[in-house]
Design brief:
The chain is α+β, with helices and mostly antiparallel strands and about 180 residues long. The chain is built from three helices and six strands.
Length: about 180
Amino acid sequence: MRWIWIDRILELEKGRRCVALKNVTLAEDVLHDHFPATAHRPATPVMPNTLIIEGFAQTAGILVGHANDFKEKVILAKIGKAVFTAPCRPGHTLRFTAGIERLDASGASTSGIVERLDPGQPALPAVPLAKIEMMFSHIDRNMSGLDFPDFNFVFTSQFMDLLKQSGFAVPASEVRPAPNLGP
């Protein structure tokens, strides 16, 4: 993974739960395309649901990887369900809460919620934004015969730095950074 779609991890309970935050700002170019002004309405920047799903996938993926001390290469295998009930706009904060439903040698199934917080009005309760279910695969076990790099290209130093900056310990066998593969 070459980019991180979460800003901070708040909670990380091994094999149980991960909670992460994403601050949504107008500095993100993608918001200017959803939805630009037209002759009949002003610009209405909205966070695309696909990117909200990506933030949840990274949160749940960290939870699954952490359960085995990041020794497995974990990839998203399936989005079982993603139901959205509200939009997210610049100035909001997303709170991703992921839990493990099943974890075994082949992978894991996770579920959780995404909530919208308004930092400008902290007294307001969180707004439920989405319910998501996902499945992850441990690719070294499930895709034998295919040639994957020896290094863990999923949990690179970017993710380890996010863990450290959020105040969580990184395994002694810290994952080395992915090599530079060019532009």
